[in-house]
Amino acid sequence: MKIELPEVHEIDLVKVMYERRSVREFLGEPLTLHELSYLLFAAYGVTDERGFKTVPSAGATYPLEIYINVKDVIGLDEGIYKYIPEEHALLWLSEEEHSKELALAALHQMFIAVAPITIIIAADFYRTVSVYGERGYRYVYMEVGHSAQNIYLMATRLNLGTVSVGAFYDDEVKRILNIEEEPLLLMPVGRKKE
Ligand SMILES: Cc1cc2nc3c(=O)[nH]c(=O)nc-3n(C[C@H](O)[C@H](O)[C@H](O)COP(=O)(O)O)c2cc1C
To answer: Mind listing the domains of the chain with CATH numbers?
Structure first.
């Protein structure tokens, strides 16, 4: 049996879903702090008083940590930052930005070196695996996908471009960022070259 579904209308979210595309060519222009704020809220922002977030999480274990390599954001010093969802704030971890090193660690995907920011989604697997055992691993990977899609959709809504980059040397990225968690996805974001 085939059931005809009603037509989807051009509400804003549907339009954004249509327009979402992976973008790998960026203009060398800065982002604003406003744009960064929206992107990070989408990635892992807190949406209620229990600490629940924009992203679904198995058992609300929230294994992800969001880092940002800031190369060029108006009103923000360059460097490596960590997003603190509970305060919707940034923690400045390092004064040096590493976009070129990240591009090299990602098998020479040099568009990463051009983008004004790269969001790095990392995970502390223990938070979820300690609750769900082996199955927790797949839950963490699912959650990264939820967060990445939110970033994609928000970037599209802001008329910015991004791409999920999964091809990189884990150890290299860990060393560059000086982090304990496992980096799972890099998402350079910038203004699109038309
Ligand atoms: C897990 C994952 C890893 C990816 N890794 C890369 C990558 O390393 N480099 C890249 O340029 N694109 C990467 N992509 C983007 C895909 O190439 C892209 O999503 C696909 O070509 C479909 O195009 P669209 O996103 O514009 O619909 C990745 C996508 C996913 C979901």
So the answer is: 12-191 (3.40.109.10)
